[in-house]
Amino acid sequence: MDLMKLTSNAKQIQDDVLKEILTLNANTEYLYRYLHGSSDKELFKKNVPVISYDDVKPYIQRVANGEPSNVISGKPITGFLLSSGTSGGEQKIFPVNNKFFEDMAFIFALRSFLISKHIEDDEEGNEKGKVLMLFFARQQSTSPCGLPISTSVTGYLMSDSFKNRPSNCFTSPDEVALCPDLKQAMYCHLLCGLRQRDEVVALAASFASSLVGAITFLESYWKEMCSNIRYGQLSEWITDLRCRDAVTNILGGSNCELADQIEEECNKISWEGIVTRLWPKVKFIQSIITGQNSQYIPMLEFYSNKVHLFSPAYGSSETMFGVNMNPLCKPQDVSYTFMPNISYFEFILADDGNKGEIVDLVNVKIGSYYEPLITNYYGLHRYRMGDILQVSGFYNNEPQFRFVRRKNMVLSVNLEVTTEEDILKALNNATLVLKRSDLLLTGFTCYADISTLPGHYIFYWELKAKNISDIVKPGNKVLVECCCVMEESLSALYRDIRSKDGSIGALEIRVVQQGTFHSLMEIFISQGASPSQYKTPICIKSSEALAFLDNNVLARFFSDKSPPL
Ligand code: AMP
């Protein structure tokens, strides 16, 4: 892989990508309207409008209903990807073909290359080891014309790119990742990982939330897993036959010594450092820990004794974007270097006073905030991603971006605008207060309640005692202090309105029962969200989800003073 060439010739490669896309798609119904068959870059910039999902949805829907692909794409569309869509509520589908999965494989290969360069090798530079990779495939559905609709991870697992991957370093056989039953798959992933504990050098999942979910799952099932290892017999409830055969093979008969060792670790009062205790050779944890998933960093650090966290890549159902070239950086310094050969990327300024200025990938300015516009090979042209990124630097000529937030995720009960970034900052400060207690925050979401006046912010928190056997008794003082600290961290306008004019009420924390956020995830998954891509929404909008959370509230706390200005 010639990374040097790729990142040094970004401008030329981007121009070539656009030329290729416009030539391929020149005669599609969508593009012909604007370009009349031309593939000229200047004309593209002048005539093709910047769009959102609703603008292109009717065209996508027509292809899904059976009209020819060339309504939007010059090359045949072979399937659709379902975006996680848990934030805005709506699930979107995006047309793709095999190239998408080839790009995914390219990003994964790049990721492996960077890992082996920076992390994985031992002193002699040749140890490889295995990765406990939590991949989950979901059942595919089909569009009215019979094309598969799947999540990007599922699509990848079903693709030739996965089947023919150059090397296999996972602890789980492919049958586990492909098992459509989420619970069986999770059980088998962890069991295979435990069985091969001495070979595991990394734990990995797409998002940090899945890893935290896996550890919570392990808390409930480790005894059963140890028994399976002890007797060499897989639990009867693993009924997926292919998965069963493959995992039985890995179990390979009775192993009392290993079962004893695992039991000894899991039986200890605290699960602090459990990851490195169960998998002593683990050198890093790989999963996305930026954006919404930054809330899981303290949990992962607690469970892993601060093993290095590597946030590998930035991608979506619309396109892959790029990778973190510096795997060893701190969680707060993660940025992603865009790869110029995947899609054509433009950027619309998102700073205050946005005048809609659009620049090419190589022309973004360090420090500025942008929303990416995607032109991909499958029918999206100048499509607004809805993510806000900040340029943090350059790798050769290739800009690097820090993920800032989803665009539309804000809380507001008055004139103030509270962004996802504000919320995460407030939450980080509150977790510092929690650190002094024996409690861990395991899940949260929030909501702007304007049903009563003045409106106020409600944070739903799920807490867990650091010692696994302790029962959570949330102390009044600590949680009230958390409310105050969060208010102090919010914007100047929030504090101003709250303190001076009283049009924002006291911030509230509602502590919910343990397991509530897991059940919430199941509700979203039952409505079609993907388990591998699922992210607990930072702000919740669905009335069904809110009612569910409220039914699980154990205690309520309010800030007891106005925040300082
Ligand atoms: P999906 O289409 O369901 O895969 O969701 C894609 C969205 O997930 C992106 O638009 C981002 O908002 C978010 N996302 C993906 N990768 C990252 C990342 N590395 N850091 C933060 N958010 C991410």
From TrEMBL:
Domain GH3 C-terminal, chain residue ranges per copy: 421-543
Gene Ontology molecular function: any one: ligase activity
Pfam families given in the database record: GH3, GH3_C, GH3_M
Keyword DNA-binding applies: no
Domain of life of the organism encoding this protein: Eukaryota
Keyword terms, alphabetized: Ligase
Residues covered by the GH3 middle domain: 336-406
Family from the record: Belongs to the IAA-amido conjugating enzyme family.
Name assigned to this protein: Indole-3-acetic acid-amido synthetase GH3.17-like
